[in-house]
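so my prof wants the structure for this chain in the tokens format not the other one, which i didnt know existed until like an hour ago. anyway here's the sequence
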Amino acid sequence: MAELFKGIGRAGILGAGVTCILFLVLGGCRPQTKLFTIGMVNDVSVREPAFDGFKAGMAKLGYVEGENVKYIYNGATGIEEKVIDAEIKKMLSQNIDLILALGNTVAFRAKEILEGTNIPIVAVAVGAPVESGLVDSLGHPGGNLTGLQIFDANLKGLEWLKMVVPEARKVYLPYDAADSHSKIIMEDLVKSAFQMGIGLIIQAVHTADEAAAAIDNLPEDIDAVYRTSAPGIDPENYKISQAAIRRCLPIVAATSLDEDVLLTCGTSVYEMGRQTARLADQIRQGVKPADVPVEMAEVYITINLKTAEKIGLHIPTSVLMSAKNVIR
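here's what i got, hopefully its the right format
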């Protein structure tokens, strides 16, 4: 360096310094920051709005796609674990810095595959993360995974069902036969529903078409349809909603589905993604996932007055005032 400046003199050195400062201001001498590369793995398309919300949240935190952050997403994988595993491994081959895992199944597969690595996982829209063993605790998740927990809206949704249909006594509930989490919550739902004076008519189905066909043939004494999260049938829930409308049955859901649902007591998939951006940013700043507390997703009530009109149901003003979103 001394040889480089020999003979230039003090003025020359100062001039060179000013020039470099100008380059720094204009970007010419700015050191290149490594792109924060995030791979998103998602099994069902109904959760895809979370990706848009996540990018919006990251943008608000100063991340500009193509400049300091890169996103890799190849679309919904479907619910087969071997396909999910292949997608996670594909992400690893692309030198990602973090995996955004949507849903319990993807989160568990990512946790197993990435065990022993230092690649962080941020799970989105996961239910019962402590009870299921996904994390050690909400305050200190442990390992290389943290994320956003879905509020258990299943029981709350039943309460809302009674508010909009006080006379409900028998309620049809189709659930995804292939989803282990759906099976787990059924026992608690049956007990809670019984305490509310509701008898749940539970049926394991494999497709939305199967559930819709069942609704078309339900006995006349069924008062409503209730939906909990079920990855295998959620993407085509509109078929279930339309079947319920044909039978003039109120359909209440404890998860965000299609707009034809009469009342949704659940979280916004988009907002969950946006909320999760904060967690990814903390990890980017050097906080270990094990020390980033699992957050709770905010719950929203959405009521569709168009559906209410189609089935001839009056929604009390007091209920409407409690809703965050009203579709008119």
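also thought this was worth mentioning. The first helix runs from residue 2 to 5.
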